[in-house]
């Protein structure tokens, strides 16, 4: 069942945003062509067009373990370490795109300063972070965690641009990220 994030019951608590980053100079040209779907998405999608999920994690919130989990998940999926660069051929027919890829050892995940607030403030923080997602700039996936004021566990959310994520891979994320964290 799909629920829009605007209607999903997020807890009040401490919200932290997690952003993949790549070491400077680590991007390399990748000779493989983009898929037709990816090219179509680049031609028509704007920043802020993303798919996402929320997962209630039944574990203690450990920022170090969560950073390692998000890094491990990001580097094991090459599409999350792939981006595009514009190629201008001077023909005036628009922008073409070439693929660039970053090696796993050049990726890390950085956390924002945690912010404590209401459920509505947590939602606003997460939505503001995910609105930065787009097909033409990296990273194409962002994360947020909310450690609730009361109760066990925490909520983990991700937003990903449709150029790197579809509904099927979104569903697989739940089990994979929980296993990596555990």
How would you characterize this protein structure?
With 182 residues, the chain is α+β, with helices and mostly antiparallel strands. It is 27% helix and 31% strand. The protein is built from 4 helices and 9 strands, in the order E-E-H-E-H-E-E-E-E-H-E-E-H. It has helices spanning 36-44, 63-76, 119-130, 167-181, and strands at 13-22, 28-30, 50-57, 82-87, 96-101, 107-111, 115-117, 141-148, 154-161. The strands form 2 sheets. Strands 1, 3, 6, 7, 8 and 9 form a 6-stranded antiparallel sheet that branches. A 3-stranded antiparallel sheet has the order 2-5-4, with no helix packed on it. A hairpin with a 5-residue loop joins strand 8 and strand 9 (154-161). Helix 2 (63-76) crosses helix 4. The longest helix has 15 residues, at 167-181. It is globular and about 60 Å long. It starts with 12 loop residues before the first strand and ends with a helix. The mean pLDDT is 91.
